[in-house]
């Protein structure tokens, strides 16, 4: 079981690295179009790395909002399932006691 968890961890790290590299290449090519200086320029005085970090912060915020939505949906599903199982348990208990 631990080897499966390790494999899943390594695959997720590989995908994260690939996405980070892809994002860096996209930002570099999009912001450098039209003869302008890219945000990720090799000259730190000409580039705007701060804009890149603001973009990363915005993407992190979007990820957090998505996480909150998933938590809310999961909570509503799990609470309805627990209410249903509680009602079924009550019916079984009532049947054992001989109550109608």
TrEMBL record:
Signal peptide coordinates: 1-16
PANTHER family: OLIGOPEPTIDE TRANSPORTER-RELATED
Gene3D superfamilies to which the protein is assigned, alphabetical: MFS general substrate transporter like domains
Source organism of the structure: Helianthus annuus (Common sunflower)
Key word Transmembrane helix present: yes
Keyword presence, Membrane: yes
InterPro entries per UniProt: MFS_trans_sf
Origin: domain of life: Eukaryota
Segments of this protein annotated with the region Disordered: 77-100
Assigned protein family: Belongs to the major facilitator superfamily. Phosphate:H(+) symporter (TC 2.A.1.9) family.
Amino acid composition bias (Basic and acidic residues), ranges on this chain: 83-100
Keywords: Membrane, Signal, Transmembrane, Transmembrane helix
Membrane-spanning ranges: 51-69
Protein name listed in UniProt: Proton-dependent oligopeptide transporter family
């Amino acid at each position: 079981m631990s080897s499966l968890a390790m494999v899943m961890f390594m695959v997720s790290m590989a995908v994260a690295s690939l996405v980070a590299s892809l994002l860096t290449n996209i930002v570099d090519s999009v912001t450098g179009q039209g003869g302008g200086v890219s945000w990720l320029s090799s000259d730190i005085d000409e580039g705007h790395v701060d804009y890149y970090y603001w973009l990363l912060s915005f993407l992190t915020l979007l990820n957090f909002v998505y996480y909150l939505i998933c938590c809310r949906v999961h909570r509503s599903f799990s609470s309805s399932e627990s209410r249903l199982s509680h009602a079924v348990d009550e019916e079984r208990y009532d049947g054992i006691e001989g109550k109608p």
